[in-house]
């Protein structure tokens, strides 16, 4: 394709931006929603868990949808579902109607990123693919960048429903434009859907996502969590074995015979776990331990997200010129050093210092994700692009959820262990208070310091995880793309 269809891609970008923005808007509003609908923390979490579950179920099927239907039909359907879900959430009279609205939103947004990435791979030649993916990264990162800050401001000053009311017109604009302007460029194949694979995929990825997402609240010894994870693992193995035996699989696992794609997947999995840890641990430290407001927490994380967004097109151009290897090595070195620095946070660390370290960490990550992913995808044949993008997005969802749960578990375990040790020392030294009021003060101080100990230890483990990704990046090679016909 000599001239990429920039107008069409712009429409897809607007739709993707709205979907990505929606993903991060609600997190800051969860405490307010919990109070308004009088629900428990374990229930309010369903607003994010249900959204993630629908994504985990639909993203693996996106390869089938992209091959079976035109990009125009898919985009209009996805944006219609997303817009309808947003409206349901806006008017929701009860909590579970709000959850339903979020799930309908997720039905639309789940297909958005795989579809856009597939269109980009087809529309741009390999020598311009890095720049194109960099601009895509700008859209993908800019939305989450402004999400927490914007949400914090709205929740502090207005109703949480404004978050959905604000999204509605921005969802309608790309939908209307798509109906009148969108053309088809993705090739269609007469593929068949293996329904049993879809069932196995739903139980496999859905079970793992649910189990790891809820484990932090329910506890790792809960029989529900253990059963969910066991079912998820069993059906996922069954799903993979079935895909390898099918002529037209739901997800094509045979693409892992391409070494650079397999390496890119491995780095992405490790990186998602480490990156998500910082996105959860930093606000927890800032708000719970240091007492900053949700808006101040959002503002602290804003420069880091903006740096990622600004760097994305720059990184794309650098990728076109130098390839992924040295970008990844440089970015992972910066990310590892700053993550180690965050493991040294104290009760007195200044707001500016936290902001600087978090921003530099995000600066490092900005050099890694898109170049590594693009390098891996470029080794695939064109008819494997839908499977490659579906696989990458599925693994990022799953590894992000698993990473978040594991790092929160590490934090809680370290916190509990530290508090128990301190209480034992006080009892041995005969310094444990005898009256209830003094005991409450001591427990409050120990809890604060214990959580700090847990968070800094989790950052230390995250730094070790980034070292693993750094070692893997040493094996990256510039790919020679496959040219065979579909």
Automatic annotation (TrEMBL):
<feature type="transmembrane region" description="Helical">
    <location>
        <begin position="7"/>
        <end position="26"/>
    </location>
</feature>
<feature type="transmembrane region" description="Helical">
    <location>
        <begin position="455"/>
        <end position="476"/>
    </location>
</feature>
<keyword id="KW-1003">Cell membrane</keyword>
<feature type="domain" description="Major facilitator superfamily (MFS) profile">
    <location>
        <begin position="8"/>
        <end position="481"/>
    </location>
</feature>
<dbReference type="InterPro" id="IPR011701">
    <property type="entry name" value="MFS"/>
</dbReference>
<feature type="transmembrane region" description="Helical">
    <location>
        <begin position="73"/>
        <end position="97"/>
    </location>
</feature>
<feature type="transmembrane region" description="Helical">
    <location>
        <begin position="160"/>
        <end position="180"/>
    </location>
</feature>
<dbReference type="Pfam" id="PF07690">
    <property type="entry name" value="MFS_1"/>
</dbReference>
<keyword id="KW-0472">Membrane</keyword>
<feature type="transmembrane region" description="Helical">
    <location>
        <begin position="46"/>
        <end position="66"/>
    </location>
</feature>
<comment type="similarity">
    <text>Belongs to the major facilitator superfamily. EmrB family.</text>
</comment>
<protein>
    <submittedName>
        <fullName>DHA2 family efflux MFS transporter permease subunit</fullName>
    </submittedName>
</protein>
<feature type="transmembrane region" description="Helical">
    <location>
        <begin position="192"/>
        <end position="214"/>
    </location>
</feature>
<dbReference type="InterPro" id="IPR036259">
    <property type="entry name" value="MFS_trans_sf"/>
</dbReference>
<feature type="transmembrane region" description="Helical">
    <location>
        <begin position="135"/>
        <end position="154"/>
    </location>
</feature>
<feature type="transmembrane region" description="Helical">
    <location>
        <begin position="298"/>
        <end position="319"/>
    </location>
</feature>
<keyword id="KW-0813">Transport</keyword>
<keyword id="KW-0812">Transmembrane</keyword>
<dbReference type="InterPro" id="IPR020846">
    <property type="entry name" value="MFS_dom"/>
</dbReference>
<feature type="transmembrane region" description="Helical">
    <location>
        <begin position="261"/>
        <end position="286"/>
    </location>
</feature>
<keyword id="KW-1133">Transmembrane helix</keyword>
<feature type="transmembrane region" description="Helical">
    <location>
        <begin position="326"/>
        <end position="345"/>
    </location>
</feature>
<dbReference type="InterPro" id="IPR004638">
    <property type="entry name" value="EmrB-like"/>
</dbReference>
<feature type="transmembrane region" description="Helical">
    <location>
        <begin position="394"/>
        <end position="413"/>
    </location>
</feature>
<feature type="transmembrane region" description="Helical">
    <location>
        <begin position="103"/>
        <end position="123"/>
    </location>
</feature>
<feature type="transmembrane region" description="Helical">
    <location>
        <begin position="220"/>
        <end position="241"/>
    </location>
</feature>
